[in-house]
Amino acid sequence: MSANKLLIASVAALALVVGVGWISATRGAEPAVVVPPPALDNPKKDGALQTAVVAGGCFWGVQGVFEHVRGVHEVLAGYAGGSRPTAQYEEVSTGRTGHAESVQITFDPREVTYGELLQIYFSVAHDPTQLDRQGPDSGSQYRSAVFYADATQRRIAENYIAQLNQSKSFAAPVVTRVDALRGFYPAEGYHQDFYLKNPQYPYIVINDLPKIRNLKVLFPEYYRDSPVTTGIR
Q1: Which domain holds residue 205?
Q2: Is 223 inside a domain boundary?
Q3: Is there a domain that residue 21 lies in?
Q4: Tens digit of pLDDT for each residue in 18-45?
Q5: According to the model, what pLDDT value does residue 28 have?
Q6: In sequence order, what E strands does the chain have?
Q7: Greatest Cα-to-Cα distance within the chain, rounded to the nearest angstrom
Q8: How many domains, the chain?
Q9: 58 an active-site residue?
Q10: What is the DSSP secondary-structure string of 115-143?
């Protein structure tokens, strides 16, 4: 290694250490909260695979959580809330596109219900009381939102939020938006399965791996060790 490359590597390593320390000193993973199951939900039943679209901060961690849920067949990281032409990471990151970093969950209704997915979402995947931010990330692209595909999903989501607020499951009100799904646009390939490809990445270690551990502890009946993957590189 040349002297210049060695200097560059040393500076990069120092920056990484400082960055990890800064994130740890500011905000790490949002704490998990034990929440009751939804009072209104679909029963488990035979039928075609279904999809759910939710947003809860950086999509790396939310995708990672649901890839470990039994009954889930695929989880795509992507964008929802804006238009197709602006569904690109650089544009979404400006916070001016209307998009939120989201995940599309394809699940088997015989194994897990829409309401059960929402219970995991509200409990361990993110903090639904934070407005336009999650952990170290801020901006409308990191908002908490449920994008419903039909009237049934809308009714379950709205009733559940009302239930959580009425029961005071959280110390602050749930600010999760419930919006109609106008379109879901998969993110760039390097974002897919990011936590699985980069398990030692500081952001993942500090913010996202704790969420997956919380899933295993709080929802052992839904947790599976071997996650599903997108297979996208």
Answers
A1: 3-218
A2: no
A3: yes
A4: 333 333 333 566 789 999 999 999 999 9
A5: 62
A6: 50-56, 72-80, 100-107, 133-134, 137-138, 144-148, 177-180, 184-186
A7: 65
A8: 1
A9: yes
A10: HHHHHHIIIII--TT-SSEETTEESGGG-
pLDDT of residue 207 exceeding 50: yes
What is the structure's pLDDT at 48?
Answer: 97
Would residue 228 count as lying in a domain?
no
Beta-carbon count within 10 A of 93 CB: 14
Q: How confident is the model at residue 16 (pLDDT cuts 50, 70, 90)?
A: very low
Report which of 166, 131, 170, 224 is spatially closest to residue 31, judged by C-alpha positions: 170
Q: What is the mean pLDDT of the chain?
A: 90
Burial of 103 (0-12, 13-18, 19+ CB in 10 A): buried
* Catalytically annotated residue among 53, 55, 58, 62: 58
> Which of 117, 104, 125, 131 shows the shortest CA–CA distance to 210?
125
Residue 154 included in any domain = yes
The CATH code of the domain that includes 195 is 3.30.1060.10
